[in-house]
Amino acid sequence: MIPAAKINVAWVTSGFYFDENDMQGAPAIFDLANEISKDPEIELTVFALYYPKFKKEYNLKNIKVYTFFDSHNAKLSSFKKLKIWRLFRRKFTEIHNINKFDLIHSFWAGEPGYNAAIMSKKLNIPLIANICGGELAAIPQINYGSQLRATQKYFINRTFEQAEKIVCGSDFILKIAADIYSVKILDKFVKIPFGIKTEKFSPQKKSNIINNEPVLINIAHIIPVKAHNDLLEATLRVKKIYPKVKLKIYGSDNNNFADKLSRIPDLNENVEIYGFTEHDKLPDILKNGDIFVLSSLYESQNVAILEAAFSALPVVSTDVGIAREITPYISAPGDINALTENILKAIKEYKTEYKDLTQKFSLQSTTGKYKVSYQNIKR
Predict the structure, then answer these.
(1) Any domain includes 201
(2) Mapping DSSP to helix (H, G, I), strand (E, B) and coil, where does residue 28 land?
(3) Which residue from 67, 89, 162, 332 lies 20 to 30 Å from 272 (Cα-Cα)?
(4) Same domain for 146 and 107?
(5) Parallel, antiparallel, or unpaired for β 291-294 and 271-273?
């Protein structure tokens, strides 16, 4: 039997992992790349526009990576981006002429998608575009979302027009897209969530709730779209029922949110902020918590919700990203009363059973769906 020809896939991203110990990248994207590259029928090449710096080209496991930010002490200005884009297009064409790409897959539909779309059209290569963040968001109160910025919106629209498939990770994004785009664009949408490594995140029964000392876990960088102010207020209200409640926040605190917390004496002993936390430490963090709580105003998917579910924690969340597909404890973004009520309800009921998690959201399952998309789109 003649073996099937490999599918030669080019990824275009904002950044990628420097090495296996690099903690600056997006773990879900790296895990997907690593899993896909194990498949003998797929050859994966990654073009990372902005990160890592000064690496140019290297191999990471089975993945060939090219990078383009090579200026010392240079800020990522518009002029610098244009230079990077030219370098990318030149290198992409060079590699394609040597080893023809069967398809291009962009992660983020903004600048990576726009550049991928240009190469797709120029070289007649099918394009898949992934929505990974705030591409469809528009929250003027906090100046968040690409839909508020004319240039970024133009990049996204160009990407969607050129793409044969547009991948998103949640029904939430499908609903938002339906309010923005025509049927012609909507017909391209397909839902494939980023998957979870089941060997890394698994259940382990350990609860402080029986002692009336529930531990709430929040994993999110402290930025306005994550609405930590709402989370603090909800915790303050939960404290009236559970005086020894603990809220543990894991995420970068570049705006010194911890200082603001220090000025709320009623929460000083109940809230702990740990700052940036390496992804490898999250399984133990989740196993030592009781309830996972997310207060975000917007999420395209949110992997931490799934990691918590795989770790058998009840999930309380605002109605963003994949939350509604996972948990009944849902409240509208900004509704602190409902968020508080759901936390209290989750503590009281303490349900930790989830249906079909592995079938729907394991890394192996979602990677298989990506492979099928590649096979279907290859010309």
Answers:
(1) no
(2) helix
(3) 332
(4) yes
(5) unpaired
